[in-house]
């Protein structure tokens, strides 16, 4: 219940951009299919996932950075820091699932994009898990301001770097044919989940050590009455008495 409320909070933050990102996610595969026809729609799918997951995650992080008191108020509610951190990972995986659904629908109406299968989704899940597994602990450690430029460069450079890597890729994975496809893809997904679990555990430890008790902004300190009212509002939202979108961003 609490994770769902936190997940809903993140989607409410990006609600103005969800439709735009859905359009972008849908347009990237056919555009990249035209630009790099040798990779069918695989390259476009990879790029759409990178843009969809990281751009929306960056926007959530930006809003949290712009309103630092919100994190303090959230930690003063019944939501644990473990749940707050875990919701970020679930948010990223939810965006990835949406990208998979959009690409699956596109391949039905545009055969030129190729076919989507469990192999593609499993390998991409592993790639996303690695990126998220590295990104979130670093962001929790150093903050949004110090990490936004490095990962912004990665996002902007990916349309140029990925084709070069895919053309230069010469890994021989024929040995995997010795095993059952379900065993191979299941193992890949389990490795992805293991990376996310280790990363989440590290992020939780970092976030637990962060000091959010008092946040100063232009000489101001957090008001206890504001915390109390926010706690009451969040508890009420958990029981469905009010809408989460009605909670104030301080």
From TrEMBL:
Keyword Membrane in record: yes
Spans traversing the lipid bilayer: 43-62, 89-108, 120-138, 150-170, 182-207, 227-249
Keywords on record: Membrane, Transmembrane, Transmembrane helix
Domain of life: Bacteria
InterPro entries per the UniProt record, alphabetical: ABC2_memb-like
The protein, known as: ABC-2 transporter permease
Organism, scientific name: Dorea formicigenerans
